[in-house]
Amino acid sequence: AEEVESRVNKKYGRKIVKHIILNVASQPYSARHSDMPVFAPNLGEVVMELVYGEDRAGIDSNDIAILWRNITGEVSGAENVKFTASLFTAGAPIDVQLGSDNFDQLKQAARRLEDELRNYDGVKDISDNIQGGKQEIKLRLNKKGKALGLEITDLGLQVRGAFYGTEAVRIQREKDDVRVMVRYPLKERRSLANLSNMKIVTAAGARIPLNQVANLTIQPGYSIIKRADRRRVVNVQADVEEQVVAADKVLQDIQENFLPELRADYPGLTYSIEGQEKERRDSMGSMLIGFFVALFLIFVLLAIPFNSYVQPVIIMAAIPFGMIGAVLGHLLLGYDLSLLSFFGIVALAGVLVNDSLVLLDAIRNKMKLHPNDVIKAIVEACKSRFRPVVLTSITTFGGLLPIIFEKSLQARFLIPMALSLGFGVLFATGITLVLIPSLYTLTLHNGHA
């Protein structure tokens, strides 16, 4: 971290790194977007705090994270090393959740998926949530135990009572509730031989040594056991260098070429895409539903006063052109379409209706004055409403310019939405002045107005 600080400050000729914070046995920053343990003796975290975004214009924190990763290289003995440049995230860029009833197959499938992801350039910090824990003694009933009518729950309860204790009585002492537990003496609880030879009571009352009715195996346990729909699941996650490869391209490729083959090799294996892709998919799904509901309500609210099904469609015809303008605005300023961009497009639909509504209402009023001269009525209406429509759009766009060109970190979240709204209104205004009169003329000729 100190080497990265030195290189970054030297490269840009000023202090970019404010502080370096080391956390031992905890990961408070990583815990904000992770389901992993926060406190454990084998955990550690190094946090590099940069100056504010407006004080380091043109310096991307992701570039510093990539430099840090390259300088650090492989960390000997570490199970999992991650580099991230975001304190708040919707999940890992690549997150594939595998599920199976056979945990051994699940681990093998996870390892194969990790090996496959390593073949992609720009995919880094590949990991899973299979974390080994302490050594455990596992009990399994043998044939004799089953023949005696024992269940695995009988073994568990009796072993727990012997080593943890069974409540014999409770004694109330003023406000305190004292529980008296009966269990083996400390010396006997520390001996594996005593566990193997402890007497298990059967349903018939017989007392039989544990090692005769069950098989005891010592093996590592797991500090995290994750389930979904009652099945054991493992999440394989990875980060990407956006300058090299896009996460959605990697996910699309493995879904088409690798995951079906993996599922065929391990019967019963299931997979799902989680992380940022799932959040994006869920958000887009709910937003699209809301968008179409909004369009329907706009149509209903316009159809009632106009007493027509066709004229609301004419008014709403400018909405697709506003979407084109929003996309062009992103391309012009070099921004990618994001979820907030689509939020802006949803808001854009309501704004565009205003200009179309004003223009169509003026045309209807002029038609009452010139019922036999359609062209004259439309031209006069466009002349009378040209200035209000154009000024409304220009002032809307001008009001959004400070947000669009704001350089502070806080404004970056709003810039895509402002781009959609501003450029969508600006582009659709010119289309509206031509489209609405043209569509209205066509409906008159076809007898639908």
Describe the structure.
The protein is of the alpha+beta class and 449 residues long. It folds into three domains: 2-117 and 227-274, no CATH class; 134-222, 2-Layer Sandwich (Multidrug efflux transporter AcrB TolC docking domain, DN and DC subdomains); 278-445, Multidrug efflux transporter AcrB transmembrane domain (Multidrug efflux transporter AcrB transmembrane fold, Up-down Bundle). The protein is 52% helix and 20% strand. The protein is built from 16 helices and 13 strands. The protein has helices at residues 2-12, 61-72, 103-117, 143-147, 152-163, 186-189, 192-197, 210-213, 247-257, 259-265, 275-306, 310-316, 319-333, 339-369, 374-404, 415-445, and strands at residues 17-26, 39-50, 94-100, 123-128, 132-141, 166-173, 176-182, 199-201, 207-209, 214-222, 227-228, 231-240, 270-273. The strands form five sheets. Strands 3, 4, 11, 12 and 13 form a five-stranded antiparallel β-sheet that branches. The protein is elongated. The relative contact order is 0.10. The model has no long low-confidence stretch (mean pLDDT 86).
The low-confidence parts are none
Overall helicity: 40-55%
Instruction: Give the second-level CATH assignment, the architecture of the largest domain.
Output: Up-down Bundle
User: What is the subunit organization of this protein?
Assistant: single chain
Number of strands: 13
Biggest β-sheet strands, sense, barrel:
5 strands, antiparallel
> What structural class do the secondary elements suggest?
alpha+beta
Main CATH class of the largest domain: Mainly Alpha
CATH superfamily of the largest domain: Multidrug efflux transporter AcrB transmembrane domain
Strand content: 15-25%
Average pLDDT level: 86
Radius of gyration: 33 Å
> With helices defined by DSSP (H or I, 4 residues minimum), what is the helix count?
16
| Topology order in helix (H) and strand (E) letters | HEEHEHEEHHEEHHEEHEEEHHEHHHHHH
**What count of domains describes the coordinates?**
3
- Principal-axis shape equals elongated
Please give the alpha-carbon distance between the first and last residues. 71 Å
**CATH level 3 topology of the largest domain:** Multidrug efflux transporter AcrB transmembrane fold
